[in-house]
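Quick one, tokens below:
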């Protein structure tokens, strides 16, 4: 096994190159987010945000409003969201995916703390009812979107687990990918449509949430490669009755039968 790992490892120069590419990508994402945060801190209301919200809210059909409310419902109920994360982590632990359970808890909790910290620093107010239609009033600061970061942390990690841990075209794997992808993509538009966030808040949530998720995935893959909290597989048990009886017989009895 050790020899196979050594033969499959990349040369050091290729490893360094990939590491530099990842660092450059993370630095770019962080720079864009920092620039956006600095800009909205000094300009709480952007004309482009108002225009985008008006475009989203042009269609006011009951079914669309109900859909947008349903998409944001989990994030709007803190106890429900916390319970969902805890239940998912417990299920992962019970199926012997212990590292995955701990990473899920750590990612979701740290993402929430990071979001609250940035909101305090940026201190951007929510959209005003005088500028846009606020269909669901929210409290606290606006940048970055807490719903978006929470959904990227939870659903994004489940989406990644489905890609990393399992293969094939099983219906439950495809269903998990579709459901997770749906919530990740649609939570942003739902926050704009409901008037809870500006488009720049949503963009900031995707940028910071995606960057934070990437860092946790890197940590997870490194710990998984080292075999931390790896599930121990039980040796296969033979269900053949003759094999069980033969194993239970003393050596002398088996030798007399053979003779």
């Amino acid at each position: 096994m050790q020899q196979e790992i050594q033969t499959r490892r990349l040369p050091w120069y290729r490893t360094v190159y990939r590491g530099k590419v990842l660092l450059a990508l993370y630095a770019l994402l962080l720079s864009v987010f920092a620039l956006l945060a600095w800009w909205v801190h000094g300009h709480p209301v952007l004309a482009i945000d108002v225009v985008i919200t008006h475009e989203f809210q042009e269609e006011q059909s009951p079914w669309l409003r109900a859909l947008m409310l349903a998409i944001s419902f989990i994030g709007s109920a803190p106890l429900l969201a916390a319970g969902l994360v805890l239940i998912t982590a417990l299920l992962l632990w019970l199926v012997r995916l212990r590292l995955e359970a701990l990473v899920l808890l750590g990612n979701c909790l740290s993402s929430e703390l990071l979001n609250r910290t940035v909101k305090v620093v940026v201190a951007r107010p929510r959209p005003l009812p005088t500028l846009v239609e606020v269909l669901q009033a929210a409290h606290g600061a606006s940048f970055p979107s807490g719903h978006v970061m929470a959904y990227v942390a939870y659903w994004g990690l489940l989406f990644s687990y489905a890609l990393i841990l399992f293969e094939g075209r099983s219906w439950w794997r495809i269903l998990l990918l579709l459901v997770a992808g749906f919530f990740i993509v649609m939570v942003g538009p739902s926050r704009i449509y409901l008037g809870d966030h500006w488009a720049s808040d949503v963009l900031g949530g995707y940028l910071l949430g995606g960057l934070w998720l990437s860092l946790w995935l890197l940590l997870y893959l490194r710990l998984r490669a080292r075999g931390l909290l790896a599930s121990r597989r039980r040796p296969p048990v033979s269900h053949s009755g003759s094999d069980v009886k033969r194993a239970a017989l003393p050596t002398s009895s088996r030798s007399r039968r053979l003779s």
